[in-house]
Amino acid sequence: MTDRYSRQIMFKHIGEMGQEKIGQKHVLIIGCGALGSANAENLVRAGIGKLTIIDRDYVEITNLQRQNLFTEKDCDEQLPKVIAAKKRLEEINSSVCIVPHVLDANFETLCPIIERSSIDLIIDATDNFDTRFLINDISLKYNIPWIMGSCVGSMGMSFTILPGQTPCLQCLLDSLPVSGATCDSVGIVSPAVQMVTAFQSTEALKILVEDYYSLRTTLVTFDLWSNYFQTIRVERAKKEHCPTCGKQPSYPYLQYDSQTKTELLCGRNTVQIRTGKKIPIDRLAKRLKKVGQLRVNPYLLSIDYQSYRAVIFRDGRVLIHGTNSKEIAKKIYHQLIG
Amino acid sequence: MTDRYSRQIMFKHIGEMGQEKIGQKHVLIIGCGALGSANAENLVRAGIGKLTIIDRDYVEITNLQRQNLFTEKDCDEQLPKVIAAKKRLEEINSSVCIVPHVLDANFETLCPIIERSSIDLIIDATDNFDTRFLINDISLKYNIPWIMGSCVGSMGMSFTILPGQTPCLQCLLDSLPVSGATCDSVGIVSPAVQMVTAFQSTEALKILVEDYYSLRTTLVTFDLWSNYFQTIRVERAKKEHCPTCGKQPSYPYLQYDSQTKTELLCGRNTVQIRTGKKIPIDRLAKRLKKVGQLRVNPYLLSIDYQSYRAVIFRDGRVLIHGTNSKEIAKKIYHQLIG
Amino acid sequence: MIKILLFAQLQEEIGQKHIEIEVKEITVQQLKEMLKVKFKFANLDNVMVAINEEYAMDQDVIQSGDTVAFIPPVSGG
Amino acid sequence: MIKILLFAQLQEEIGQKHIEIEVKEITVQQLKEMLKVKFKFANLDNVMVAINEEYAMDQDVIQSGDTVAFIPPVSGG
Question: Distance (Å) from the C-alpha of residue D48 to the closest C-alpha of chain B?
Fold first, then answer.
């Protein structure tokens, strides 16, 4: 069976020893969209020991353009992404243990999974910074490296966070970026996904074979359509008083108050989301104008999106009309606002 | 059905117009290994009109570590790569026309395909420079852009050749490189494949939507494990007297004499023999059933013989696994087939 | 002269990939203020800034000849 | 001083990723000859050469301060 990995064992930085290590490791991938699918496929083909994948979503027709584990049939059957992923991944490599969780990733769902497993590495494949800051806190609290990745349009970025060594996401970004460009507002092409995945999976392999010396220490960012590529040295961003990786961490995203709160507005077929941060309505309006019928006034922005209507207030409240499901509401919120 | 491409249509450099163009184009991918699989999947997910894929090989266990269209089952069934690829690609997007050819790519097999189809773009997914120089000649002779790509270890390179505009491969490399590193001698990790694919597929999309202005004009080269990335401006490499893209081209790789009949598949401990005649597999199977362990499918016959394995394709090609000697290979061929 | 590279939505907002500014010395914070006024950027908070490919903070000083990149984090995945 | 970046098998051959050479001016051809003697490279034909990220030919002149990359084409796919 090691014959199957022969080309990887031949690679001088992996070898027999490295392959054995890969086979003993457990990776957690958070999100099973484009980046999640592609990273999962790489790790499973590479012979990872155990892979846990979390995603709350099911396969939709618009996913097929870039999410490599899914087929038309998965879409017809509306399979949860992690379930469809597990099926394909086991056809690819039946010797890997795949643990799927159909779950919204938040601190209440993630912490128990982390605590009862022995996770060697977390790969970020989420589509929003809320969850990335949460992963960042978890990484530092439980001393697990994580690899950030994101993409949109033909752009992407990636950075590897090693607790105790590198700056963390909180060092790089003082606060949650509001309204980053999302795949659902400005689109995406599949090579952007692959490029980020190439960086993430390479760093993952380095960490799994414990070749820390070779890790990329820069933040990488690119735009494939503009033929642009840049790496940024970030050592100096590490902050002594960082609330996540500093000397006296408070792990702000593991506190109940920092969570984006969703509540059902009873009988109104509406979910209210409270984000706890101001939303720049005007900028958002510019970006969303092609996405759906839009109305703006000084207090709010309202948009018809799919069969729903989202009303976004400047003070950070969002109403999603047309659903009683908190999961659907959150998904729409992340698709529109990021 | 356009809903399926909505994220790609939203991308400002593609749009409705670009998507329509993609749907009308015909791409030829030469090779269906790691780069071929990954490029094919991207184009099919992106909604390419028609895709022709050529490969002479069948799926083996050592492929699964990095070749994204194939599963353990394809390997058990010893399916030709293009046949296994077509099956998966149709599950991904049933509206794309996939034309597989189980063929060795040489000028006798390629030219007829080019002449009877209207190919808009050729993607290089071969594993050798013999074939790349052949593609280069074909590209210039028939005025079809091609996108070079190669990878090994954690390294890769890519370059886009636009007839009449950019230098061609012959301009960049005066002659066939001898003994380049191969996947079978120094191994390969899958992110190297994805990175090259990301470059190739992005350039492919630019060409398909006719956004020539955005094309990368540099040769890109990288090493993911060493965190190295470089682009090289090559305009000045274009040679007036180039035998391929110069004023009086001779297309040296389209001459009969430049073809080989027996070839070593480098680092694979395998020799390929091209007989130039069709082989009656079923008759042969009957005769060989007492000679060694035999497997037959509609495309090929495979037999364990002494310490070797011979795989005999209906179209007259034979692979002798277990030797690097052309002489031994020929001998086994003659012993089995006569 | 300082060369400023813009990415993602910042490019869209002003329709340019890079701009040049004639100053000898300026802090990152001051440059942000200047760009907000001059180009009407909606928001330059939470945009990462790099001077000559090194992460920079608001109080860092940019010299003439430096290349400054403004990189808004992208969120998709 | 000229900085020389090595890739692929060239790195392996001498176990270094880059080397530095103290010369004022040298052609690509001359540099290849020098490296073949000094570092015993098996073969530097069919290796692409770039000076400061631009494709270079054998007769091109390298100046002190330039960065030269030696890039052997990789063949796999």
Answer: 7
